[in-house]
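Wed. Picked up where I left off yesterday with LRIG2 isoform 1. The coffee machine is broken again, so keeping this brief.
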Amino acid sequence: DLSHNQLSNWNISLESQTLQEVKMNYNELTEIPYFGEPTSNITLLSLVHNIIPEINAQALQFYPALESLDLSSNIISEIKTSSFPRMQLKYLNLSNNRITTLEAGCFDNLSSSLLVVKLNRNRISMIPPKIFKLPHLQFLELKRNRIKIVEGLTFQGLDSLRSLKMQRNGISKLKDGAFFGLNNMEELELEHNNLTRVNKGWLYGLQMLQQLYVSQNAIERISPDAWEFCQRLSELDLSYNQLTRLDESAFVGLSLLERLNLGDNRVTHIADGVFRFLSNLQTLDLRNNEISWAIEDANEAFAGLTSLTKLILQGNQIKSITKKAFIGLESLEHLDLNNNAIMSIQENAFSQTHLKELILNTSSLLCDCHLKWLLQWLVDNNFQHSVNVSCAHPEWLAGQSILNVDLKDFVCDDFLKPQIRTHPETIIALRGMNVTLTCTAVSSSDSPMSTVWRKDSEILYDVDTENFVRYWQQAGEAL
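Structure written out below (tokens, as returned):
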């Protein structure tokens, strides 16, 4: 190991016939060094953080036994067809250089042995189709380059590739068949790019894919048949995107999926039955979305998730939890409801589950007779230490932890939560006609009451509404 010595050149023969590894990192070398005859025994050469401007095939000819070559953090600008002699190299690291060009056939002389190639942190903007004729390559890294578009058949010739990493390139377009030919690939990492859609065109040919990471993109939509060609996925990360809705067909074909991350999107709509195909899913992360209706009033939003053990719903807009919210989750053990302004939880809301951990914090609870059950349930299930729940109403209990409220104080003297007295009646009309629907609700609260109209579980924004408020007195009090 001759690292950190400010060496600028080396042309000295070494006597040792058994020398196998040479490390000359953090020097000032401008070319690949020569060590004389013993070079024929060297299997590892590490020249990290020097100022080598090019790869010279003549210099590498003196390393016939070389298996690992690390030239990362140099000033190499291109990989030519003549850069490498025929050799049995298995590991090649060219990360953190200035590479802009990959000539066609530049890796051909390494095709019989190369297993790992790292080209991270370079200036590559285009990958010529079929440039990688490396039938034994298993790991390819192209992180932090400048690749905006990936053409079809780009990676053809990588029959054994198992992992491809292309994070932080600014990729905005994956053409149909972009990954065609990667018949054995198990892991694809595309985080921190500019993709806007998941569709079967660019997923074509990935029938063995098990992990797909596309977080930190700008994905707005999952096409109905997106997963037709990659149905072996066990892990899918779609977090930090722009998804607003999960349509019924969003995950069709992913029956082997075990982990699904949809956190930090803008999801407001979850279609009934969207998860019904995910019978093997164990972890579902929906944190930091805008979910409310799916928990408050949808019919079995999580139906089909018979293997789910962990559900994360923290940071949403859930105000109430009904007794049918978690129907079908008989395997659920860990439930995270943190950072939701939950006002009410119906009795038996968790009866379908087998919870071992409940994470819940809210200071918005309506502590009336309908919530009396929760106090005893928390104690019976030993959750009193993992929750931070306090009353907002009635006023004389505001701020108190429900764990400190006496059971006799959970009363229903008034009805602060609005109660619907008149539901809209069914109206049959021709398309294009105007119809009027009427709904009435009452509350004893002096807070203003707001209304939201929904059709098929989705909020209607383009409708005309009129609100009428009436007050009346009961026992001398205004209602």
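Quick read: The longest strand covers residues 357-366.
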